[in-house]
Amino acid sequence: MTVAAGGAVIAADPATNSLIITAPEPVYRNLRAVIDKLDARRVQVYIESLIVEVSAERAMELGVQWQFLGQPTSGSAAVIGGTNLPGRGTGTNIIDAATNILGLGRGLNVGVVSAKPLLGTGTANGSVSVGPINLAFLARALETEAGANILATPNLVTLDNEEARIIIGQNVPFITGSFSNTGGAGGAVNPFQTIERKDVGTTLRVRPQVAEGGTVRMQIFQEVSSVQDASLSAGLITNKRAIESNVLVDDGQLVVLGGLIEEKLEGNVAMVPGLGRLPMVGNLFRYDNRKRVKTNLMVFLRPVVLRNADASYGVTADRYDYIRLMQGDSRLTPSELIPEQQLRPSSLSPMPPRPGTPGLAPPSVAPALNDAMPDRWRAVTPGQVPVAPQAPAQGDEVRPGAATGALPPPMPTPGVLPGGVIQTAPNEVVIPRALSPATGGASN
């Protein structure tokens, strides 16, 4: 790409990330000042997210049921009836228990079986019922408690004003349609299902924008989802918590994005009218259940601006040392029959030294390569130590774009290369061009 304007020609070389400028000296100096301000290290942002969810659930169930469904003896009358208070098919109803005693639900189940056969069934040996039992009394008691403490800390690094995304979870299939052909008369049976896969887990998408004073503006999308029930024939039940917002926070400070504090109390009472309300005795004619669910969910975010290599190294070393420490938690329980040495994971190598400090650098971050090639570790020698900031002497030219009071290390002495090319910096050369006497002067 080439741009020509104002007597200057600027050509870009993407392969080497270079600019080729042909312009008169005053124009070149102005362009150089602009380039010095633009050609600077871009700021990075390290973003930590904290998702905390604490939930507690408690349920209680207590009730008594009666039934009088015995067959009458020859020539006599009998009374039938009873209380079947809970819903059918829940594993708590007395009639369902009489049909299938093994189908009773969890908890304490105490019952009394009558010697008379159940109404509508045959008899064997004149007294023993065949088929369903005659369950005359059933008392149930159950108390359950459940709790969850979920802590997720997704984090990532991105450039200033660049969107980044991290997804940690599973790709779960969801049935969106199905077809079943009965075949008919000689027709082929070709059943099929259509499935759509969706990501279920933790998702963080953020775009930070760093202001001059260190304030960070972030466009955030945070989602936490999980599969709650996969046993339904109609499909899966998923839990989802999502936040999408724009926030403003200072460098290194913590901000709360939002959350949910929910407390839900459910109760159900089934009883015989009148009798169920009697003190003490009424408990024999009622069935109670209670359920209390409490959920606390909070999402926090903390951005850290990385302005130089030392800041980036500090964050990387901190995370790297943490994961090396956590490797000890993955050790297997020792066994006398299975050799643990063959299943022991390789230890991570230490971090390479900080830029500008001596030390040893491993050939790779992969532990297997470092263990296989111990001779490939190389010594790192520190480079030139930056000079202390000094005020410019009188008559010295301050490089355009340099920070006030903190000058860069002194530039090497310009050298003349073959062909009259002058090297003014390690990554910059100036090619003088002689012009005709009619125009006079020279251009760079």
What's the arrangement of secondary structure elements?
Blueprint lengths: L1 E4 L2 E6 L4 E5 L2 H14 L5 E25 L12 E2 L11 H6 L8 E6 L9 E2 L3 E2 L5 E18 L2 E5 L4 E16 L12 E19 L4 E15 L7 E14 L4 E17 L14 E21 L2 H18 L32 E3 L5 H6 L5 E3 L34 E2 L5 E4 L2 E3 L2 E2 L7 E2 L1
Antiparallel strand pairs: 1-2, 2-3, 4-5, 4-9, 4-10, 4-16, 6-9, 7-8, 11-12, 12-13, 13-14, 15-16, 17-18, 19-20, 20-21, 22-23
Poorly predicted runs of 5 or more residues: 384-414, 438-444
Please give the share of residues in helix.
Answer: under 10%
**Overall residue-averaged pLDDT value:** 77
Q: What is the beta-strand fraction?
A: 35-45%
Give the terminus-to-terminus CA distance: 20 Å
Discrete helix count: 4
Order of helices and strands: EEEHEEHEEEEEEEEEEEHEHEEEEEE
State the major sheet: 7 strands, antiparallel
User: Shape from CA axes?
Assistant: elongated
Number of strands: 23
Decide which structural class fits the backbone.
mainly beta
Radius of gyration: 39 Å
List its traits.
single chain, 444 residues, seven-stranded antiparallel sheet, elongated
Explained architecture:
- Helices cover 10% and strands 44% of the residues.
- It is mainly beta and 444 residues long.
- The strands form seven sheets. Strands 4, 5, 6, 9, 10, 15 and 16 form a seven-stranded antiparallel β-sheet that branches.
- The radius of gyration is 39 Å and the shape is elongated.
- Mean pLDDT is 77; it is low at 384-414 and 438-444.
